[in-house]
Amino acid sequence: MDPIVSLSILLLLFGISQTSPARKTSHHNGFSPIPGNVDITTKILKSNNGSSEHLMEGDLLFPKTKNALYCYNNNCFWKKNSSNLVEVPYIVSSEYSSSDVSIIQNAMSTFHNKTCIRFVARSFQTDYISIENKDGCYSYLGRIGGKQVVSLKRTGCVYHGIIQHELNHALGFYHEQSRRDRDKYVKINWEYIPTNQASNFQIQNTNNQNTTYDYGSIMHYGKTAFTNQTGKETITPLPDATVKIGQRQDMSNIDILRINKLYGCAV
């Protein structure tokens, strides 16, 4: 082939490649991992910095009608339908792009594939989740009745793990380190926690479903959550301080087991 013709073809192909939109591999098939070596808690707390909401434990909306976080009886859980599936109606704000919606729906798919939870598009249901682009990543704890907001700020919260974390809150799950037996498994380093943030490490009266403490839970704080000194740990695993906590990818097997036990899923 004539060298000039060959060069022209190469330049043409290069021009096409430059004008074509690059494929975002991090969003392949709707899966969007948090970039860098950042755990879910760190990303959530950064996104929630400056939020106008009254948040407990960093990302739990405080109900105006209650004086404490409370979800350990049937009143705050979503109900089964006649097919023994737990339907959680939801709507998604029109502020999200089609890519955002794909990521949100993909995060929901793990619940659909491995539990009896079904997030379904709302039609006429009174109780439902409204996923909105507000000022952070946060949710109410369990079903509170009527419209309840799950906030997923577009610029910091639309990631697979964060979405699953907030949806677990909406199903009624606390943070893992809030378990009533947590002091057997982690040490809270109070000296690195600001006084005004100490309430975020309060032990809750949780129903652990007779499951073991899960260092790998998507609901576990990272080691430096709320620290007042860069790099200093507020949570140290016991007895092995090198155990990794604060993941950023996907629900653990124990997370899934707990959902199934709590909601009586036959899977």
Structure description:
The protein has five helices and nine strands, in the order ααβββαββββαββα. The protein has a domain at 40-175 and 250-263: Collagenase (Catalytic Domain), CATH 3.40.390. It has helices spanning 3-19, 40-48, 98-114, 160-171, 253-262, and strands at residues 55-56, 60-61, 86-92, 117-121, 128-132, 137-139, 147-152, 186-188, 235-237. 36% of the residues are buried. It is globular and about 50 Å long.
Write the layout of secondary structure elements.
Blueprint: H1 3-19, H2 40-48, E1 55-56, E2 60-61, E3 86-92, H3 98-114, E4 117-121, E5 128-132, E6 137-139, E7 147-152, H4 160-171, E8 186-188, E9 235-237, H5 253-262
Parallel strand pairs: 3-4, 3-5, 5-7
Antiparallel strand pairs: 1-2, 6-7, 8-9
Helix pairs in contact: 3-4
Organism: Anabarilius grahami
Cofactor: Zn(2+)
EC number: 3.4.24.-
